[in-house]
Design a protein that fits this description.
Blueprint (H helix, E strand, L loop, with lengths): L5 E6 L11 H4 L4 H15 L2 E6 L3 H9 L5 E5 L8 H8 L5 E5 L21 E4 L4 H13 L5
Parallel strand pairs: 1-2, 1-3, 3-4, 4-5
Helix pairs in contact: 2-5, 3-4
The protein binds 1,3,4-trihydroxy-5-OXO-cyclohexanecarboxylic acid.
1,3,4-trihydroxy-5-OXO-cyclohexanecarboxylic acid binds next to loops.
Length: 148
């Protein structure tokens, strides 16, 4: 396994309005504030991070196609539950991906407990709020990436 040096962090629809969206579920931090925390953790781990957020399925797929990082951390948001197109794009990646959810998707509405993307990523972290993104970086760093 080679060392993870560059990670793409992708956030899906409605995560751009964190901080004012269902704060009881998602917490009070905005996406830029969460990205700052990710950046700090990444620096500690010696990882360079790149961020991408979109409310559009096609833009997320295009960004995954262009991925030139060692790993991907993705919160596909509501697309998690039904986007076979994002699932296929994740499956086509030749680097590991980790799925993150701020909330515990298994403790909410029934439709949220199904992830069509989870089976094609290395693993899923959910229910730990923004800390989940940091855990994903830690896991990737400990496990390592694809041998070149
Ligand atoms: C989410 C959970 C999804 O069900 C929801 O649609 C989101 C956010 C999470 O981070 O907990 O937008 O992915």
């Amino acid at each position: 396994m080679s060392s993870i040096q560059r990670v793409l962090v992708v956030n899906g629809p409605n995560l751009d309005i964190l901080g004012r969206r269902d704060t009881g579920i998602y917490g009070s931090l905005t996406l830029p504030e969460i990205e700052d925390k990710i950046r700090t953790k990444a620096a500690e781990l010696g990882i360079e991070v790149e961020f991408f957020q979109s409310n559009s399925e096609g833009e997320i797929i295009d960004r995954l196609h262009q991925c030139d990082c060692d790993a991907v951390v993705i919160n596909p948001a509501a697309f998690t539950h039904y986007s076979y197109a994002i699932r296929d794009a994740l499956e086509a990646l030749d680097v590991p991906a980790v799925e993150v959810h701020l909330s515990n998707i298994f403790a909410r509405e029934e439709f949220r407990s199904r992830s069509v993307t989870a089976a094609v990523v290395m693993g899923q972290i959910c229910g730990f709020g923004w800390v989940g993104y940091l855990l994903a970086l830690e896991a990737l760093k400990l496990i390592g990436g694809k041998d070149q």
